[in-house]
Records
---
Amino acid sequence: MDSGLDYHTAKALLEWQVELGATEAILDAPVDRFALDPAPAKPAPAAAAPAVAPPAPVAEIDPVEEARKLAAAAPDLEALRTALSGFTHCDLRRGARNLVFADGVAGARVMIIGEAPGRDEDREGRPFVGRAGQLLDRMLAAIGLSRAPEQPSDGVYITNVLPWRPPQNRDPTPQEIAMMVPFMRRHVELAAPDIVVLMGNISCQAGLGQRGITRLRGHWTQAYGAPALPMFHPAYLLRKPHAKREAWADLLSLQARLRDGGQDG
Ligand code: URA
């Protein structure tokens, strides 16, 4: 069949569909569903219009307020996961295979907050399992921390601002981030870490309301009511290996803070 598309456009469209998870053909021939749509109903003549009152205006839902209510009502991490999975106002969930909630040791002294799941995380339903995640594991191991530690005291807890993968790994929009901040605040409250690590710009945008990781990294601050350390994202370090020097300095700063008790001051 001649689709009228050139080879490269057709291939890009096919790859896009595979990326979205449409990996199986269900029928032998394509179906044009727009052609199947019933014709739009003709408006009834004015004389036949029923004499009913116009419908009351539907109250606009504020997704951030809705997120606040749902998150605040969650008494524990499992309930928070359930609340997130029932949150319907963020369109990202529709394109994602899995909700990616968290990994590692809940209750650990360090909570790592990344950006959003990528393809591997979306498949597995766990944060930081792809190449960036493997680098993160090596970085943490260098200061004696792990998401699967032998001693619970060496554990870390890992999550992301966004629990759903954005299409094509695009940056989340400010609205998408704003809807997730109440969940993240509650997540930190319930996990109660001594320290949060904000990995990369999106995490700083959500936790500090600021971007500019090159300027922010390595400077201790407060986020979600806890001492917070912004750091370069491991995906950035994969692209810019020369920045590993600063990342190492930040890891040592994190280690020193943990030795000091992880509190302010
Ligand atoms: N990058 C992130 O920020 N989080 C992940 O889970 C994977 C990659």
---
Amino acid sequence: MKPNLDQTTLSEAAEFLAKTLGPPPPIGIVLGSGLGAFAEQLTGARALPYAEIPHAPMSNVLGHAGKLVFGRIDTTPIVALSGRVHGYEGHPLERVVFLVRALAKWGVTRVMLTNAAGGVNLAYQAGDVMLIVDHMNLSGMNPLTGHNEESMGPRFVDMTRAYDPKMSDVLRQAALQQEITLREGVYAALAGPNYETPAEIRMLRALGADAVGMSTVVETIALRHMGVRVAAVSCVTNMGAGITGDTLSHQEVKEVADRVAGKLIKLFSMALPRMAEC
Ligand code: HPA
């Protein structure tokens, strides 16, 4: 049976990170659309283009830089993955989750995931920020399909508290302090790459989803499998199809993501060092 991850390639990537960057930081962040500028906040930063990391996948989506940045906020070491690959690009799932797994294998124990998402909850509006408290994997994809490597994690992974309550609390507190309205909701992941139809958005709302996107859940699953604590935030870049009458475009998604980025970067700069201690 096809292994769902190749231990050797993963170990080689993790060993490269240890050799090049030293001991693992307590926390990592995956930067979704528009959030690449977060990496520029890190002091004493060292950037590694994905091309330099053994076996790392390359992203093809415009606006995804594709580099790992290791630096600090105050005294807290932080690693940022700027640019991710998606299943819809045609990458096998073990490639999609390769870098977050490599962080875990290096020894990173907490990861903050971020993304751009469409608003499904009618109370939301474009520009909102949503703490992901739970998810629905409607993508039809799962990074754990295939042989389970017991040394990495269990065959049947508990997902009761997939999103870490303590890390989430840190985000709530930081948002409160910065007077950022933090929505809370359920993120539904679809495979993409097309945006949803209005009927699909109504279906997702009926199912209990608050936001919809094409990433994050496979990373959450792979990280929880390895026992890594996860928190996640969506930038609601647009309302789901059919809600406002406007059509959707990647251009609009990027523009709103860029507009909200400053606020999110401030939020993460405060929250990540605290998460590293919680
Ligand atoms: N649907 C799915 N993914 C998205 C959307 C959307 O409306 N906006 C940003 N990412």
---
Amino acid sequence: MLLSIKSKKKSSLNSHIFNKADQLHKALQQERAAGKTIGFVPTMGALHDGHRSLVLRALAENDIVVCSIFVNPTQFNNLSDFQKYPHTEEKDIQLLNSINCRYVFIPSVDEMYLEDPKLLELNFGALENTMEAEFRPGHFKGVATIVDRLFKIVLPHNAYFGEKDFQQLAIIRSMSVQMKHEVNIIACSTLREEDGLAMSSRNLLLNNDQRKAAALIYQGLRKAQEFIPHQSVDAVRTLVIRYIEQSPLLRVQYFNFVDPITLENINSWNKNDDVQGCIAVLTEGPRLIDNINYIIE
Ligand code: AMP
């Protein structure tokens, strides 16, 4: 079904909503045949300014942009996380319409999985033995599968992903190489709330107290930069965890200093090293992740 959302101003462009993969694929084929470049932003909806920034960048760098909204069941290792995941479809469509994102893809689970429920079996080496992979078994298999399927439908020239999901970005780069997708994977910086909390759809699930406490996560990540010149890797990790856990509402699940490419753990500070600090924090509500880059001087 192809549905055109009418915006209030007659002159502004409308978003076209596709639910069927083959219809979207055909429409995009025509665009490609006409020489248009295609930018793609996959999302799980409940769109916020972080997602918006990805779409705006894609709009600036491509002739047309496709944004998908699909809460992918195979990447949830926890049923209640899947069931609670926020859905704000009407608002999402309005947002995409307001910035003239022409193509919006909102498939059903059957559309993406009924014909072929089998997940992609790839080897991600060290990337799949650490951090998110360790605490969310099967998560990246689901991510890689859905992004591969979406890439095959959209065949984008450029695809945009947030650094907020740092390990996901590395997995998608690897999947894309292994599956020989001819697409540029473009990393976009993390948008934050005023108090520093990384924007996330899951933030909608924080109660007021958890939301206030969650600001400690980014503060803690930044504090590490102050500690690094004076303390060992282990000591900095302990200090940051202690700082964040000053709130009884937050519990750090992991905080790792890793190489930004291989994601292998860093065990000592070396001058001019590029180090990524990646963290997952549990609340009684949603689980939150964030990361920050450190330059060692
Ligand atoms: P999601 O809907 O959470 O699956 O996210 C869709 C895309 O938006 C992913 O590439 C995310 O990394 C990216 N994203 C999520 N939050 C942010 C943020 N705060 N800033 C920039 N990009 C983000």
